[in-house]
Amino acid sequence: MIMTGLINQIKTRPEVLQPEPLRAYRLALLAARFNYPVERLPGGAIAAADFSKINRSQVLRQLSRFLLTSEKPSRGLLYLLQTGVLEKVHPLLFAQVGCKQEISHHPEGDVFQHTLLVVDQCRLRLHLSRHPQSLMLAALLHDVGKPVTTGYHKGKITSYGHDVKGSKLAAEFLREHQAPKVVTKAVRQLVREHMQPVLLFKQKDKISDNAIRRLGDRVDVNELLLLSEADYLGRGMESDYQPIKKWIEGRMARLKPGTYHG
Asked: pLDDT: is 54 or 221 the higher one?
């Protein structure tokens, strides 16, 4: 009923979006929550709205507290893309569209397609998180460094350093949207470290306790494992993250009490 009323209002009076373009985000939320077909939404009216003076802190609220915590946040993000809102309001996210990845590692497609899968995977694990807002924002922003680091090396697509660059871009994004400092710090750390569990596991026979301890000093390992698992599974192929998770947790348990945040 709410969905139908809002859509009918925008279809009959598209000018209502001019003073309140945040309604585009509310529609994206409703599309995600109720699995409403994107093609039936008033995308043209929303694309024509003026977003130049949109309240960035309210945008972040819509994204992090509502859209990203809906049942399937990828639907809402796709709606923002298909209506042109993503390009106008979030060029950092829009840059992921069409950014190629090495198919042997990412058969799902471009970086944006991967991000859609990762946010949905993170949403499935949200009940395990102590900091759900930071976790979902980290899922959304974890690969924003790829468009500016992607290139070719020995005939393969690479994005070396995208974790470092991405952590800086994520922090800039959150500061622009007036996120609380504690959220910005947590997201920046998660984006910077999101590949570490898998990389450490690949060298598990050579990893010292000090290396594991330093990881625990830099980031909340419980949240990192949730993000890392979502990233690992968000690739459109069958994967088993449990060996990685169990190894990291086992190594953390060997350290002094209080080192492991899980």
From this structure: 221
**CA atoms of 25 and 61, how far apart (whole Å):** 10
Reported pTM: 0.90
Best CA proximity match to 101, nearest among 60, 61, 19, 157: 157
3-state secondary structure of 244: helix
Question: Would you say 117 and 234 are in contact if contact means Cβ atoms under 8 Å apart?
Answer: yes
111 and 82 housed in the same domain: no
The helix-helix angle for 209-218 and 242-253 (nearest 10°) equals: 100
**How far is Cα of residue 97 from the mean position of the Cα atoms in its chain?**
14
pLDDT of amino acid 194: 98
97 occurs within a structural domain: no
Q: State the amino acid at position 40 in one-letter form.
A: R
**Overall residue count recorded for the chain in this entry:** 262
pLDDT (tens digit per residue) in 95-138: 999 999 988 889 998 999 999 999 999 999 999 999 999 999 99
Range(s) of the domain holding residue 52: 1-89
Supply the CATH number for residue 114's domain. 1.10.3210
**Closest alpha carbon to 77 in 138, 32, 109, 40:** 32
Say how many domains are in the chain.
2
d(CA 191, CA 177) in angstroms, rounded, equals: 17
What residues pair up with 158 in beta bridges, in sequence order? 151
- Long-range pairs, 177-182, Cβ under 8 A, ≥24: 177/56, 177/57, 177/59, 177/60, 178/56, 178/57, 178/60, 179/60, 179/64, 179/137
DSSP code of residue 64? I
